[in-house]
Amino acid sequence: MPSPRLVLLVLASLSACRDPAAEDLPAPVVLPAPVSLVDGVGSYTLDADTVLTTSAAGEAVADLLAEALRPATGLPLDVVVADTPADDGISLVLDPAADLAPEGYTLEVTEVGATITAADASGLFYGTQTFRQLLPAASFDTAFVDRAWRVPVVTIADAPRFAWRGAMFDVARHFFEVEEIERQIDLLALHKLNRLHLHLTDDQGWRIEIAAWPELTEVGGNTEVGGGAGGWYTQEDYAEIVDYADARHVTVVPEIDFPGHANAALSSVAALNEDGVAIDPYTGTGVISTPLWVDGPTTLDFVRDVWAEVAALTPGPWIHVGGDEAIGTPTADYATFVQALQEIADDEGKTLIGWDEIGPVPLDPPYVAQYWFDVDNTMEAAANGAQIIASPAARAYLDMRYDTSSDYGQTWAGYVDIEAAYDWDPVLAGLDEADVLGVEGALWTEYVDDEAKLDFMAWPRLVAHAELGWSAADAHDWPDFRDRLEVHGARLDRMGVGFYASPALDWE
Asked: For a tag site, which of 39, 62, 242, 389 has the least CB within 10 Å?
């Protein structure tokens, strides 16, 4: 019988001889699911000599990838600008002549390096987000982790199903600071979500500075649900959010909601009221009947002023005019006002988006209707030539409770667990795929008053929406998505996302 000392020496010797790089890597887990993924044999290891090589046009994308990987890896990951790809390391190839769809990319990992190729900068960026998911979950940590950083040999070809893959955050009911929104932008970008719809005004608050009408933030910027202090974005704040999002290939879509949900404006600007007296601020949670005075002598001038300033700060091609729940506005007056909003949008060089209540209004294409509640309105909009964003409340409203055990949230559209958020098709029966611009999850914030609740309600349901928007329809498979999400949870956890860890899933 060997002595205990001999056993210890043998075990120590075996441990010293074990090569971590020779151990098998788990199968790649990518969300959203790519068009194709072919496993190879072997792996590529990032080390102190690894550099990122790209052209000048791809440098910004390479910088973001290096910045994302440096904290956990502790590697320098220098970015080298060159006209030709390197033979090793990580190469980012931006080739407008490449036969790739918009936002599409290819990613090839060999034992000596990785090459991401795209025809546009967005595709190159999304290729880097997939590359990040090939690394161990620890690479998403914000502090150094001492381990081997290996990537499996793999070949991926990918492109999105829909052009619009969005998330809406209501900052009007409860206000969120610039840094909190930028953190969410990082999460959207990781999951290839490319639209940030900011609901900037509502009955309970006005969140964007308008130089021509300072009363809007002096009064409406200092209220919120529950009577809190509120808050608002200066034009510099808003521009910072727009620039931060743009660098991560996320387009900001501002919403100024009229003629309904106008209490914050009416409590701020006396001239918008028929009697010339500003109404009281509203800090409740319900939908109330305080619509904009659409026939007022200064109303359209006011709306033009607001949109002139917001549109000038927003380089994206869309503005969202709301149009929902205009309780108390006569039908004919509503239609005339929405048509006037489209004229204003056209004057600003923007495409109008409205909630599905705009469906019966005769508008001129191109414009977009966002389906949330009324299928008939949505179908009428599509028949009139509108494209559709799918945000059905029973599937895409992130303020709905997950189940009966949830501590907060709403239930009027039912419970929306992760499976319900995933297992539906954005193309409504009766519509063609070309009619649908994309999908968007919407987080209303009557009951979401801090960043922890925002994380909990948005994630991982937005991961489900990201896959619906990106991956091909025939790739949608709940058991497969569930299995990948169970692995992906470790990445979210490493990033400090306080997501809903459903007890129905077996999280790693």
From this structure: 39
Count CB neighbours of 338 within 10 A.
Answer: 26
Q: Where do the CATH 3.20.20.80 domains begin and end in the chain?
A: 164-473
Q: Helix crossing, 178-190 with 121-134: angle to 10°?
A: 80
Query: For the domain 23-158, what is the CATH superfamily, name and number?
Result: Chitobiase/beta-hexosaminidase domain 2-like (3.30.379.10)
The pLDDT tens digits along the chain (508 residues) read 344 333 333 333 333 333 444 457 999 999 999 999 999 999 999 999 999 999 999 999 999 999 999 999 999 999 999 999 998 999 999 999 999 999 999 999 999 999 999 999 999 999 999 999 999 999 999 999 999 999 999 999 999 999 999 999 999 999 999 999 999 999 999 999 999 999 999 999 999 999 999 999 999 999 999 999 999 999 999 999 999 999 999 999 999 999 999 999 999 999 999 999 999 999 999 999 999 999 999 999 999 999 999 999 999 999 999 999 999 999 999 999 999 999 999 999 999 999 999 999 999 999 999 999 999 999 999 999 999 999 999 999 999 999 999 999 999 999 999 999 999 999 999 999 999 999 999 999 999 999 999 999 999 999 999 999 999 999 999 999 999 999 999 999 999 999 999 999 999 8
Catalytic entry in 209, 325, 357, 380 = 325
Q: Name the fold adopted by 164-473.
A: TIM Barrel (3.20.20)
Question: Is 325 labeled as catalytic in the residue annotation?
Answer: yes
SS3 string, 243-255, reads HHHHHCCCEEEEE
Q: Cα separation of 167 and 185, whole Å?
A: 10
Quick one: DSSP state of residue 158? E
Ranges for all domains in the chain classified under CATH 3.30.379.10: 23-158
